[in-house]
User: What shape does this take?
Amino acid sequence: MRFGTNSAERRTVLKTVGVGIAGSTMLAGCIGDQEEVDPEAGAGDDLETIEEWLNEEPNRLDAIAEEPVEWGDGVWDGELVDRTDESEVEIDFSAMLTVDGTEIGPFAADPRAVEISPGTAVTWEWDGVHVHTLTAYFDPPHDSPEDAADDEFAIEGEDGETTSHEHVFEEPGVYLFYCFPHGTPYETDFGPADTDGTTNWFGHRGALRVVDE
Assistant: This one.
């Protein structure tokens, strides 16, 4: 199903749903608000912000990786995929996360970081295997679930059904997005495989940079 982009639709209350991975029960998505980023910020500052966001080491890869993996410098190589000449951009938000040559699971965005022009319609797609909720965009990062709650929305899907959410970005700036709880910047109340709650489980994050050419 496709949700519109007005505020009422984006503030649909998050629904708690189970996603079974490696015997654990997890959630899969929340949304934060979109705020304008200082248009005077330079490209270097933007790239630093995105790099810090995307390459922050996850805390729970050991919960689902069959063998120990080394995060190293992270999974983002510094490339912003240039889609500034396109009016519509799709992001696969259930792409395979590969770390240290090991496939971890559907915890990546493809493209992971993309540059677009104002007025571009971005669609996140999730190839669902369970009923789920889907992350979208936010800036600045929320500090807690309570802060994010005012801006949550949900996308529900059936087994094997691809679901999506679309938003048109108008203001230049950097917009970061994440999956709850697989990429949250704040502490969660629970953890995978009976572990304690923590931040950024599997690094399920992405970034957009809107540039006014």
